[in-house]
């Protein structure tokens, strides 16, 4: 079970034979044993290990051990008999993990090399394992399941215990590995993902935490190869051939070759580290070495997002096998001895020397699936066809590959012709995916092509030679069956039959008179054509398609379904009758039968009609008197094997279990062979009886994908089976001895290979029928093509003649030239051409209106999505020579919210500045006050100077006196402006108050009196303003940088314009001087399209370039170019002689005739040359200075951008902090508003409670006054009663009780009480009236008793149960209402004294009542003694207190009383026990019966 702990010793082992799955067949499993395995599933990932010198790989249900030195192969079968899903080696090499497939698959650990079963791990996945790996310490094992659970499980494998598990991914996982550097880390990869796992300790225990790799802007890729570097980073491959460097679950960089080329052409499948270098292999068949340290230190920039690197060395595995130019490195296993194992998915297994790069081939096999298999009728040679396009011949007895032939398309079927076709047994027929069939001949050194026909337009599914060797029938996916005549001279096509669908199976009858074809769920019988077939017009044959038993099979299956339905209904009927048995009553039985019939009808309606059975015929095989068919049911039954005799009903041979996908019979007819979709092969003399069964292949894909083919050798000594997963097994039949003489004879008789008899056909060519049907249309097309070429040649000839005429006309003297109008053959031709062009343009515009509108809308949406939100796009400014480029910053527009916030902040700042200005202007200027004495001194100086100017000099004494006077006047003016001692300017007062509120008191924050000043308080509004200012600053920085970049771009345009002009002048000078070309520095100043605003500006040159690119392959010019327009396009302007300008170079020709040269001319030429050389040097220097200046400015701008990006990044981080603070402040504001609302509500509640308290106090005061009036009235009444009845009156108590009763009945509510008080008073009156009623009843009972007893005793029995005076209840109510109601201390004391007096009176009355009760009880006992009464249990309800006390006292004295108890007479006989309850005497003569009366709800029992 999952996670089961088994305490096993380290040296204990399992018995593999006891745990192995039981054989499925009836015959013993030793009937067939594994002889050789010739195929490898080349497409599997991580399916190659190395244990010393042994290569280990899994194929089917066997693990293969290939000795790389000797070539010997040994096998380890899976424990459950199912296919092996994954293998893994222990780091020490002492153990091997074999993870299997199937339902609840096992994960077995074997000791190596003994291969003893050491541990069995159960419950790791549901259906199959896809990968497994040990950790570097060897203590843990990680496994990954396949669909449907994809479960990652970490095992403590030695204790068979699951440590951790988690779902790895939702798609296929290829690999799982432990980190070699970090303990507890794993990596998994597969379809579209890579995941990094960590075994983390949490508060609930150890957990698996997986971080999925985020590709970001990199395209999603399947990852089958990766390796962890010593730094902890992970390097993985991609589908497009680059390497990805992962840091955590993020891509740090993408690695490619220099120049942006991919590391591999195609997917990278495997990565490894060997000798400090990274080794990679991919679909291009190359193995590359990469520098490990360079990859670990790889860095990228914004301008260069990929890291470029050259491989240290490269090894190509292509062309290692003859005829195979393709290689695909699937796995690389490195070793410490410098030997690598390399699995080539193109069909090879190599051992590579890592030092010399020499390789040695260990195995060759099909790349991909094996689609066809057949054996020679005369030897131990088999032929296989593969999806890799190869056809291979095998000596399966020796387990060796003989020959391989490769073709351009995948081979899909093959068949070895019988000796009836070729007595030598060397002819092979092969069908291909392109619809071609080829006939090959097996030779001693290869396969020779004999014939090739393109009979189909789609993949050939089946290829069968007729038993008589006359015909070859092929079925293909184009829903046709083609017949080919097989002759010694070659193959001749006869024709085809059209079907309703692609044939799923085919077989010939034994007499070759019929071909049975299964098409979907139909079985058809076709009579083959004769030799003389008319196929001149078409290869389609008018053959009749007859039913071959599919209707009978369908009827038989329908009958089975009906019988099954009837059995189900019968069982339901029986269950219903058990639940509803029939009655003997005929009427009830009829009703039951009707109900049963109704239940059956309801059951049938619920089940519905029986759906027709749907099936597919997977395989057909001829049999004596008919044929066998393997049926796979889609719905409505079980799959099985059926026999179809001729003109008879089909019979089932075997039903149930997986469907058969192949049926065959041995050449000797002794054995029949079958293959199933679950990968099993069955062998038996008769498949309907006992069979041998063995499972060597993996199950075929669901949905009918894949195929499994099985054959018996010509001598029945070997069973061969091959599957589309690439596995190929050879089994030896134990009870049959191989015929080695015939086999060796065939091998010895094979001739050497001769040249191919015919040329091969092109797979892209038409099929035979297509070629025949298209031959006429191709002829018409060819004729039209010839006509077009002739017309174009004629037009070209006329154009050349026209050009020659134009040239001759231009060569004539001007007087003899014809005018241009004379060459217009048709004056209206140009107009017609223009009109036709306009009509065509209009038609084209109308035709493309929809597409143009769609493109326009799409462009508008793209602009609105990506361009309109931007204020500045990301453009590049390139250097002129340095190659550097600087990108502009991509600036998004400020949102309306940001703009509004920024405007609000600026408005607040401006308002604050205006307020500060006004305050400053309203204050007196201290500087002016300070300057007052200076002004006075200046006035004195002016006076002195004026006197001096007037010519009246002053003496020193006068000057000193004048200065003293001026100083005194200044001081007097200053003292006059001095304010009063207690005066304070209003503006100063307000400023001081503002400072006190804003500046704070500078206390420590830990001080309990610390108070945050107003200026230091931060709220959401202030934080929003800070954010707005920061956004504006960032936006301004970016905008200013982009402005400088745009200015430099404009400067570049001006520089380029100047340089282009200088370049033209330099070219003129060079043409005049003819210097060495190496002295001219070429400069390409065409420039790049750096302005994004010109992306939609299309010039005529752009359109012309686009048109020339689109029509580059066309030959000639259309006819519309002919005429005057063509003439103008090709005419040359007449030569004109223009005088040379001043300073211009001389003409390239000689300056003067040699004979006329003079010294002056020579001197002028030399001077002109010197001037041109000087001008050239100046232009070159200016060009270099301009270029250097611009590149330097660009370098400075690049450095400035780096600093700006750093500042912007810090600002962005600051903005993130401010944003988080803003969110917190908003949350705090919300909490403040909530608390303020609660505070307001509490204040309102407090006010309301204060009002209610005032109201209650007023009511209490009213109550107090009412109580005082009641007490006063009670005192008056008591005084009146005391005056009428003296205190010593013998009947005072009875009279007092009667008096109080009368007072209560006549009492009215006092004045001053409200309606609620009246209601309370009525309730109290009701309760008191109830008590009065009880007292009345008691008194009535007492009066009745007094009639039969002593009057004195009866007279003393009243009053004890009377209720208290009303004023006592009022008093209690007053006290309980509020202690403040009776605020008068004297009144309270008086009321307490009166209450004490009343309690004492009550106690005295109670004692008198008790004595009276005792006397009456004694009298009653004396009267009732000796009487016999009925014994009835005592029933008592609400006895008065006095009756309880009296009765208790009587019982204590031991008397048997007859005591009235709430109106019921109870009698206790003399003989009764003290604990016996009293009895009710209904016939007491002394106590007359008491009429019934109302009792209260209280009840009790006497004790």
Describe what this molecule looks like in 3D.
The chain has 1503 residues and is α+β, with helices and mostly antiparallel strands. The chain contains 22 helices and 64 strands. A hairpin with a 5-residue loop joins strand 29 and strand 30 (359-364). Helix 3 (550-579) crosses helix 4 (586-607). The longest helix has 126 residues, at 1159-1284. The protein is extended, with a radius of gyration of 60 Å.
Helix share bin: 25-40%
- Alpha carbon gyration radius: 60 Å
Q: Give me the number of helical elements.
A: 22
Strand order of the largest sheet: 18-19-20-21-25
Euclidean distance between termini CA atoms:
73 Å
**Which whole number gives the mean pLDDT?**
79
Please tell me what the overall shape is.
extended
In brief, what are we looking at here?
With 1503 residues, the protein is an alpha+beta fold. The chain is built from 22 helices and 64 strands.
Please write out the topology.
Elements: H1 16-19, E1 32-37, E2 49-51, E3 54-59, E4 62-67, E5 73-77, E6 84-89, E7 95-100, E8 107-111, E9 117-121, E10 129-134, E11 141-145, E12 151-156, E13 161-167, E14 173-178, E15 185-190, E16 193-202, E17 205-212, E18 226-228, E19 234-236, E20 243-247, E21 250-256, E22 268-274, E23 277-282, E24 286-291, H2 292-296, E25 306-308, E26 313-316, E27 329-333, E28 339-344, E29 348-353, E30 359-364, E31 370-375, E32 381-386, E33 390-395, E34 400-406, E35 411-416, E36 427-432, E37 436-443, E38 446-454, E39 460-465, E40 471-476, E41 480-487, E42 490-498, E43 503-508, E44 515-519, E45 522-526, E46 545-547, H3 550-579, H4 586-607, E47 614-623, E48 626-635, E49 640-645, E50 651-655, E51 660-665, E52 672-676, E53 680-684, E54 692-695, E55 708-712, E56 718-723, E57 728-733, H5 740-749, H6 768-811, H7 829-847, H8 849-867, E58 870-872, E59 876-878, E60 885-887, E61 891-892, H9 896-922, H10 926-950, H11 956-976, H12 986-999, H13 1020-1073, H14 1100-1110, H15 1124-1130, H16 1159-1284, H17 1292-1306, H18 1315-1346, H19 1351-1355, ...
Parallel strand pairs: 21-25
Antiparallel strand pairs: 1-57, 2-3, 3-4, 4-5, 6-7, 7-8, 8-9, 10-11, 11-12, 12-13, 14-15, 15-16, 16-17, 18-19, 19-20, 20-21, 22-23, 23-24, 24-26, 27-28, 28-29, 29-30, 31-32, 32-33, 33-34, 35-36, 36-37, 37-38, 39-40, 40-41, 41-42, 43-44, 44-45, 45-46, 47-48, 48-49, 49-50, 51-52, 52-53, 53-54, ...
Helix pairs in contact: 3-4, 9-13, 10-11, 13-16, 16-20, 21-22
């Amino acid at each position: 079970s999952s996670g089961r702990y088994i305490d096993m010793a380290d040296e204990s082992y399992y018995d593999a034979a006891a745990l192995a799955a039981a054989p499925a067949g009836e015959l013993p499993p030793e009937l067939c044993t594994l002889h050789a395995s010739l195929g490898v599933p080349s497409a599997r990932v991580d399916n190659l290990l190395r244990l010393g010198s042994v290569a280990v790989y899994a194929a089917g249900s066997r693990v293969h051990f290939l000795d790389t030195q000797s070539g010997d192969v040994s096998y380890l079968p899976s424990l459950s008999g199912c296919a092996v899903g994954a293998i893994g080696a222990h780091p020490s090499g002492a153990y091997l993990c074999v993870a299997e497939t199937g339902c609840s698959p096992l994960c077995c650990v074997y000791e190596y090399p003994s291969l003893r079963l050491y541990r069995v791990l159960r419950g790791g996945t549901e259906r199959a394992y896809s990968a497994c790996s040990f950790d570097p310490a060897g203590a843990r094992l990680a496994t990954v399941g396949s669909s449907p659970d994809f479960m990652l499980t970490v095992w403590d494998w030695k204790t068979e215990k699951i440590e951790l598990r988690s779902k790895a991914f939702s798609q296929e996982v290829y690999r799982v590995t432990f980190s070699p550097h970090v303990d507890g880390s794993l990596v998994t990869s597969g379809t579209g993902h890579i995941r990094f796992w960590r075994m983390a300790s949490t508060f609930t225990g150890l957990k698996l935490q997986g971080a999925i790799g985020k590709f970001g802007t990199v395209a999603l890729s399947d990852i089958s190869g990766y390796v962890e570097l010593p730094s902890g980073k992970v390097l993985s491959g991609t589908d497009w051939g680059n390497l990805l460097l992962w840091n955590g679950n993020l891509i740090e960089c993408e690695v490619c070759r220099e120049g942006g080329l991919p590391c591999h052409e195609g997917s990278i499948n495997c990565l490894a580290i060997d000798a400090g270098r990274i080794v990679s292999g991919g679909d291009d068949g190359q193995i590359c070495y990469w520098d490990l340290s360079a990859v670990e230190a790889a860095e990228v920039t914004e301008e260069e997002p990929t890291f470029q690197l050259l491989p240290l060395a490269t090894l190509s595995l292509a062309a290692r096998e003859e005829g195979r130019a393709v290689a695909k490195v699937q796995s690389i296993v490195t070793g410490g001895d410098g030997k690598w194992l390399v699995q080539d998915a193109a069909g090879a297994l190599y051992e590579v020397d890592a030092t010399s790069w020499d390789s040695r081939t260990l195995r060759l096999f099909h790349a991909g699936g094996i689609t066809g298999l057949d054996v020679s009728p005369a030897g131990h040679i088999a032929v296989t066809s593969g999806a890799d396009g190869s056809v291979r011949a095998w000596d399966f007895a020796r387990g060796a590959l003989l020959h391989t032939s490769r073709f351009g398309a995948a081979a899909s079927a093959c068949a070895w012709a019988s000796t009836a076709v070729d007595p030598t047994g060397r002819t092979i027929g092969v069908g291909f995916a392109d619809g071609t069939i080829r006939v090959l001949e097996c030779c001693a050194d290869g396969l020779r092509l004999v014939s090739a026909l393109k009979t189909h337009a789609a993949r050939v599914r089946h290829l069968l030679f007729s038993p008589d060797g006359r015909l070859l029938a092929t079925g293909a996916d184009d829903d046709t069956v083609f017949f080919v005549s097989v002759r010694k001279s070659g193959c001749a096509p006869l024709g085809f039959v059209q079907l309703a669908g692609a044939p799923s199976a085919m077989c010939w009858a034994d007499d070759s008179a019929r071909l049975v074809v299964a098409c979907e769920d139909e079985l058809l019988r076709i009579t083959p054509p004769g030799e003389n077939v008319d196929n001149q017009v078409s290869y389609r044959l008018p053959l009749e398609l007859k039913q071959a038993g599919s209707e009978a099979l369908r009827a038989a299956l329908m009958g089975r379904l009906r019988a099954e339905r009837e059995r189900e209904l019968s069982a339901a009927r029986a269950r219903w009758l058990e639940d509803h048995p029939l009655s003997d009553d005929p009427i009830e039985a009829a009703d039951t039968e009707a109900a049963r019939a109704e239940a059956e009808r309801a059951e049938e309606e619920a089940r519905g009609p029986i759906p027709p059975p749907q099936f597919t015929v997977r395989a057909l095989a001829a049999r004596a008197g008919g044929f066998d068919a393997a049926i796979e049911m889609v719905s409505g039954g079980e799959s099985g094997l059926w026999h179809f005799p001729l003109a008879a009903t089909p019979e089932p041979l075997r039903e149930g279990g997986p469907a058969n996908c192949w049926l065959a019979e041995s050449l000797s007819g002794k054995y029949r062979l079958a293959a199933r979709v679950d990968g099993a092969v069955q062998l038996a003399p008769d498949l309907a009886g006992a069979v041998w069964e063995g499972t060597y292949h993996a199950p075929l894909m669901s949905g009918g994908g894949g195929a499994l083919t099985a054959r018996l050798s010509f001598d029945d000594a070997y069973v061969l089976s091959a599957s589309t997963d690439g596995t190929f097994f050879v089994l030896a039949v134990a009870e049959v001895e191989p015929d080695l003489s015939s086999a060796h004879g065939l091998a010895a008789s094979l001739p050497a290979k001769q040249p191919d008899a015919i040329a091969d056909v092109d797979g892209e060519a038409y099929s035979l029928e297509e070629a025949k049907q298209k031959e006429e249309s191709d002829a018409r097309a060819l004729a039209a093509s010839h006509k077009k070429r002739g017309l174009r040649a004629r037009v070209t000839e006329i154009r050349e003649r026209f050009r020659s005429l134009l040239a001759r006309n231009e060569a004539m003297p001007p007087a003899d030239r014809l005018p241009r109008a004379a060459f217009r053959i048709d004056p209206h031709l140009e107009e017609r051409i223009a009109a036709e062009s306009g009509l065509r343009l209009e038609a084209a515009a109308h035709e493309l209106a929809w597409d143009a509108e769609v493109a326009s809308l799409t462009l508008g949406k793209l602009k609105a999505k990506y361009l309109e939100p931007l204020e500045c796009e990301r453009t590049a400014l390139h250097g002129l020579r340095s190659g550097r480029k600087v990108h502009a910053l991509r600036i998004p527009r400020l949102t309306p919210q940001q703009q509004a916030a920024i405007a609000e902040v600026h408005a607040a700042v401006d308002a604050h500045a205006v307020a500060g200005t006004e305050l400053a202007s309203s204050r007196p200027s201290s500087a002016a006050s300070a300057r007052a004495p200076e002004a006075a001194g200046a006035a004195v100086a002016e006076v002195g100077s004026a006197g001096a100017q007037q010519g009246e000099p002053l003496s020193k004494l006068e000057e000193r006196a004048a200065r003293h006077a001026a100083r005194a006047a200044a001081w007097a003016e200053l003292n006059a402006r001095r304010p009063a001692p207690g005066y304070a300017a209003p503006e100063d007062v307000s400023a001081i108050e503002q400072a006190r509120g804003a500046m704070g008191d500078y206390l420590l924050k830990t001080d309990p009196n610390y108070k945050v000043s107003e200026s230091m308080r931060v709220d959401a509004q202030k934080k929003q303003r800070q954010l707005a200012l920061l956004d504006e600053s960032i936006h301004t920085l970016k905008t200013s940088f982009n402005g400088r970049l745009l200015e430099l771009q404009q400067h570049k345009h001006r520089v380029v314009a100047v340089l282009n002009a200088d370049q033209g002048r330099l070219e003129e000078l060079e043409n005049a001087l003819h210097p060495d070309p190496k002295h001219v520095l070429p400069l390409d100043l065409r420039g790049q399209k750096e302005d994004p605003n010109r992306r939609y500006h299309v010039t005529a040159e752009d359109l012309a370039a686009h048109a020339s690119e689109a029509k580059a392959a066309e030959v000639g010019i259309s006819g519309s170019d002919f005429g005057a327009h063509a003439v103008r396009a090709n005419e040359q302007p007449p030569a004109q002689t223009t005088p040379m300008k001043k300073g211009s170079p001389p003409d390239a020709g000689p300056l003067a005739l040699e004979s006329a040269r003079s010294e002056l001319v020579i001197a002028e030429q030399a001077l002109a040359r010197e001037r041109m050389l000087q001008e050239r040097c100046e232009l070159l220097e200016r060009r270099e200075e301009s270029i250097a200046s611009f590149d330097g400015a660009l370098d400075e701008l690049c450095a400035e951008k780096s600093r700006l990006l750093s500042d912007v990044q810090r600002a962005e981080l600051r903005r993130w902090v401010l944003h988080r603070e803003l969110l917190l402040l908003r949350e705090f504001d919300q909490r403040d508003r909530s608390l303020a609302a609660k505070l307001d509500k509490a204040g309102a509640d407090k006010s309301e409670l204060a009002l209610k308290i005032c109201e209650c106090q007023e009511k209490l005061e009213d109550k107090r006054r009412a109580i005082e009036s009641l007490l006063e009235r009670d005192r008056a009444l008591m005084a009146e009663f005391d005056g009428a009845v003296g205190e010593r009156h013998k009947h005072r108590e009875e009279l007092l009780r009667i008096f109080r009763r009368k007072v209560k009945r006549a009492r009215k509510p006092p004045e001053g009480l409200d309606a609620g008080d009246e209601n309370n008073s009525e309730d109290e009156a009701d309760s008191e009236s109830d008590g009065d009623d009880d007292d009345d009843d008691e008194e009535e009972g007492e009066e009745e008793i007094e009639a039969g007893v002593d009057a004195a005793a009866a007279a003393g029995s009243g009053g004890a149960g009377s209720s208290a005076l009303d004023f006592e209840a009022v008093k209690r109510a007053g006290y309980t209402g509020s202690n403040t109601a009776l605020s008068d201390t004297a009144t309270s004391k008086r009321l307490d004294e009166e209450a004490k007096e009343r309690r004492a009176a009550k106690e005295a009355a109670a004692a008198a009542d008790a004595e009276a009760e005792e006397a009456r009880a004694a009298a009653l006992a004396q009267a009732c003694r000796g009487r016999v009464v009925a014994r009835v249990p005592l029933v008592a309800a609400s006895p008065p207190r006095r009756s309880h006390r009296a009765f208790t006292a009587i019982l204590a004295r031991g008397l048997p009383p007859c005591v009235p108890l709430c109106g019921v007479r109870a009698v206790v006989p003399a003989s009764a026990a003290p604990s016996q309850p009293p009895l009710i005497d209904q016939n007491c003569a002394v106590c007359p019966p008491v009429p019934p009366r109302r009792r209260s709800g209280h009840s009790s029992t006497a004790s």
